[in-house]
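Two proteins follow. First one:
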Amino acid sequence: MKRLFGSVRARATLGASLVVAVALVAAGAAVLLSLRANLIDQADGQADSAARQVASRLAANVGYGDLELDGEDNPVQVVDADRRLVAVSDDLESISGTGVGEVKPRPAATPPRGDDDDEGDSGEDALDAGEISEDTEYSGGSATVDGDTEEYRFAAVEVNVEKKGDLTVYAGGSLAAERSAVSTALTSMLIGFPLLLAVIAAVTWLVTRRALRPVDAIRSEMAAITASEDLARRVPEPDTHDEIARLATTTNETLAALQSSVERQRRFVADASHELRSPIASLRTQLEVGAAHPELLDVDGAVADTVRLQELAADLLLLARLDAGEKPGGGHVDLGALAREELSQRTRDRVDVRMELGNAEVTGSRSQLARVLGNLVTNAQRHAGSHVTVTTRVEGGWAVLEVSDDGAGVPESERERVFERFVRLDDARARDDGGAGLGLAIARDVATRHGGTLTVREAPGGGALFELRIPVVRR
């Protein structure tokens, strides 16, 4: 049971069924109440009409015995001011709800119309008309007529008749039609509602199953990718242009990014192993030769290999920290002052470094920005003919650091590739001269972490111009 209702399909079907069930019950109750109210109103209308017909005869001074109540389809009682039953419809065996439970009339003290004592006044009495009240009071009850007991709505109409006084006419409207209609409607609802609910549940189940079929396909493919560790596979993308299709597209984009990251990591490990192998092998060779023949030990070469190995290890460590998402920090760094300080310590550069330094304050890591400057200057000196130029300035909302040389420059087709890790455009040059190919990759990663950019273009006087842009400090 827990597994069943752990399904989205089952929960959706149950939820839809419950909502529809509540709606059906509410609608059914409203229909029944409305139907019952309308039928009761009809019964009230019938009762009121019958009561007023009898009241009209009484107002016309028709005698109690001449009312002919046996022809009425509704039970009728006529009660005087003393609550005495003075007239009643025939075949009435019992009644409740009118306040007078008697079914046998008791003659009034006033002689009924048509007696001999009043014959001389018949013409005058016929001209007298009674007054019928415009108000009608209703009540519910039951009556037994000719052996049949039914529920009724009773209308009470008052009429004032001269010589008879105040009379109240009670007439009943049968509720048999109301009971029958309500019972029929209720039976129909008890049969139809479950069937309708079952149809809605089945349709919801099928529609949800079809809608979630792509999700199941995505899940199955993701499980297969996990089992096979093949990140080149992709989940199927349904041609529905809905949320599930967008989920599949996003999943494939995530898989592509993950595949690229894994491949980049593998290349990084392979290239790092390859780059580390050379200085380690060279250093080991020199140390083994020195151990066997001390007079042949190349101390300078060993120191150079050790320095190169140390720099490569530092570069790899910095790249690992950058890949791990290391934050650049929130310190304020003036690129002009940083460049002046760092360049003053480079005393063994083979070419002259010219400086055009202006204040350009940014937020970030001083050590990482110093590494960017050092890598750019080292790269420029490696390819410069006679000099390198370093410039800092503020341009709009950006702090700009430019490092240019007067060398051969970077071909336009290779201007993005130079920022890839372990890439050296001049494959023929010696490793000792060319480096490991990590300096520019580190510089761009640091620029990106600082919210900036690092690009290369042709310098105005020829050669390459590397431009670092970082947002200036907002005062």
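Second one, unrelated to the first:
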Amino acid sequence: MRDNDVVLKVNNLKTYFRTSHGLVKAVDGIDFEVKEGRTIGLVGESGCGKSVTSLSIMGLLPKTLAQIEDGEINFNGVDITKLNEKSLRKIRGNEISMIFQEPMTSLNPVFTIGEQLSEPLKQHTNLSKKEMKKKIIDMLTLVGIPRPEGIYSEYPHQLSGGMRQRVMISLAMLCNPRLLIADEPTTALDVTIQAQILELIKDIRNKQNMAIILITHDLGVVAEMCDEVVIMYAGLIVEQADIKSIFDNPKHPYTQGLLKSRPGTSSNERKKELVSIPGSVPRPDELPPGCTFAARCPFVMGKCITEKPPLYKLENRLSRCWLYEEEAKGREMDLCLK
């Protein structure tokens, strides 16, 4: 794979909401990229900006409340924040697809599965009705749905949660997108079905060399699926690294807290009390002047309360923490000497 096989590049993305409480900075200047055949995980607690990032990319923000204040979202070299709705529709569901978090609310209860899966094909292809039905049944078969001909004529409420999620994957994959955004694709599914869904997504990625953004708070899913991880907190990236570096040597106190919060696998570990990060994510309209994680951080110092830390470039990652100020300066000095 060449270094220039970048499917999506997000530069300084700022997505703000205007509310009765004032300006809410849901996403406040983030940068990342995803390449062909690679999966990047967006990780963090609820309210940290993961889903807003995905909706910004898809162009599905509620226009009366939210807008992209600054930054670029470059897809295939085109800044899609500058495109009008008609141009976005040609890309959305065709070159960029999304698996939404809750299939029961994403699927329309009054239309059959076949009718709903026909929509992207009507929008983006010139297939006949017969050809569309064959393609849909082939896709339902690919995602492991039994008796696909029967499912084609059924309604969402007639299917189990796992089957509905497979239908959502079919819907996202029908037009062979270059980029798939999966927002909590296994939430509320039992462990066995979760493993099957993840294996299915991974298999499709490998066959089609597709780029994936996986949004989750489940670190087990991240370990299974991702090549790189972006840790978000209160609308900012606080750490970014390859999967091995994140799990073997987490740098940011928030990342460390997330990893310590995982339940153990041995019988002795399961008997111990679960570790948790104290407090909660601050409201987006009540962010502190300094580091947004300071109130929950075990290593907090005076500087953290008053000054926002930059995103430092370390040896094999990015980390937004004053603890690494000297390490980052040392690395810059070494690079200058070279």
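SUMMARY FIELD: The mean pLDDT is 89. The chain is about 35% helix and 25% strand.
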